[in-house]
């Protein structure tokens, strides 16, 4: 039996949950495939990918810090990877030796918010905190929102990001003073347990406060909870973006709930 090879590439990579997630998807859907984590030296991502593609790897996931470099080495790009303006991809497909790139982060976020959390984005007031790679990558997936406000520590970056959509506006954190329906924390402030300088007034009991970080309660999540908002972390997005990549590679959509439950159980 032919067994197809896949991998995730990053640096560092030991912490990655992707091998566990894809092993679960492969088992559920009876796919003959392997999926491993590969550490690429920071200065030879390009060579590592080309070597893997030449060794007949069928597809790769790309994580920090290589998503931007991955975009540049693609021979072709999906429409959503081109139109996101992120200049970054997280999924590579070996298409007869040519590299096709896609970005499944936005689709993963939207599926988690709408399907898993049951929150409809259409017509809602949305606030994105942060204007880095993750914010760029998911902005297009919020189509249908009434208004999207981008707030960032570096205001110029927020202005630039908001200008890429017709219903966008930008401001500094301390100018935020009214409640939003959906607040997405796309900053990496949670990594260092840093409080964002945001007012309690942006949360209400009707707010969904979504932190793209996962694995721990961030100060953002704690503040949202104190103010009565519904709170979610980014584990669902992680698993959904993986499922979207799996679907691109294998043409079959895995069930995401069992693997989310498994990872949550491992964390407790
Ligand atoms: P980047 O480094 O590209 O951007 C970081 C952003 O966070 C910038 O907007 C930066 O502001 C802001 N920031 C960092 N520290 C602080 C702070 N102390 N106070 C205020 N703002 C701060 O990172 P990414 O966009 O790639 O990643 C952001 C987060 O999203 C990470 O936590 C990452 O783990 C998560 N993520 C989760 C995914 C998932 O599947 N769940 C997928 C992708 C990302 P400034 O511009 O002013 O420097």
Automatic annotation (TrEMBL):
Pfam hit, one: Shikimate_DH
Binding site for shikimate: 16-18, 63, 90, 105, 214, 241
Any one GO molecular-function label of the UniProt entry: NADP binding
Domain SDH C-terminal: 234-263
UniProt-annotated binding residues for NADP(+): 130-134, 212, 234
Residues in Shikimate dehydrogenase substrate binding N-terminal domain copies: 8-92
EC number, as in UniProt: 1.1.1.25
Domain of life: Bacteria
Keywords noted in UniProt: Amino-acid biosynthesis, Aromatic amino acid biosynthesis, NADP, Oxidoreductase
Gene Ontology biological-process entries: amino acid biosynthetic process; aromatic amino acid family biosynthetic process; chorismate biosynthetic process; shikimate metabolic process
UniProt catalytic activity: shikimate + NADP(+) = 3-dehydroshikimate + NADPH + H(+)
Transmembrane stretches, start-end: none
Annotated ranges, domain Quinate/shikimate 5-dehydrogenase/glutamyl-tRNA reductase: 121-189
Example of a GO cellular component annotation carried by this entry: cytosol
Pathways involved: Metabolic intermediate biosynthesis; chorismate biosynthesis; chorismate from D-erythrose 4-phosphate and phosphoenolpyruvate: step 4/7
Active site feature: 67
HAMAP family: Shikimate_DH_AroE
Subunit structure, interactors included: Homodimer.
Family: Belongs to the shikimate dehydrogenase family.
Described purpose of this protein according to its UniProt entry: Involved in the biosynthesis of the chorismate, which leads to the biosynthesis of aromatic amino acids. Catalyzes the reversible NADPH linked reduction of 3-dehydroshikimate (DHSA) to yield shikimate (SA).
Protein name from the UniProt record: Shikimate dehydrogenase (NADP(+))
Protein's gene: aroE
């Amino acid at each position: 039996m032919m067994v197809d090879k896949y991998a995730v590439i990053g640096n560092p990579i030991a912490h990655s949950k992707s091998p566990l997630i894809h092993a679960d998807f492969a088992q559920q859907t009876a796919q003959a495939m392997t999926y491993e984590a590969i550490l690429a030296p920071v200065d030879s991502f390009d060579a590592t990918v080309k070597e893997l593609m030449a060794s007949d790897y069928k597809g790769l996931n790309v994580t920090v810090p290589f998503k931007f470099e991955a975009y540049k080495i693609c021979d072709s790009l999906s429409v959503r990877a081109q139109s996101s303006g992120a200049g970054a991809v997280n999924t590579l497909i070996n298409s007869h030796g040519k590299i096709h790139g896609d970005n499944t982060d936005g689709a993963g976020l939207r599926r988690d918010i709408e399907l898993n959390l049951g929150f409809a984005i259409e017509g809602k007031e949305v606030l994105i905190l942060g204007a880095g790679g993750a914010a760029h990558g998911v902005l297009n997936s919020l189509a249908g929102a009434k208004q999207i406000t981008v707030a960032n520590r570096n205001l110029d970056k927020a202005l630039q990001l908001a200008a890429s959509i017709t219903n966008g506006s930008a401001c500094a954190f301390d100018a935020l003073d009214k409640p939003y329906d959906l607040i997405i924390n796309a900053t990496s402030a949670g990594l260092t347990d840093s409080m964002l300088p945001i007012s309690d007034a942006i949360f209400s009991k009707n707010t969904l406060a979504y932190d793209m970080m996962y694995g721990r309660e961030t100060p953002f999540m704690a503040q949202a909870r104190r103010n009565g908002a519904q709170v979610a972390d980014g584990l669902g997005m992680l698993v959904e973006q993986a499922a979207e990549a799996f679907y691109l590679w294998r043409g079959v959509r895995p069930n995401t709930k069992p693997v989310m439950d498994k990872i949550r159980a491992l964390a407790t």
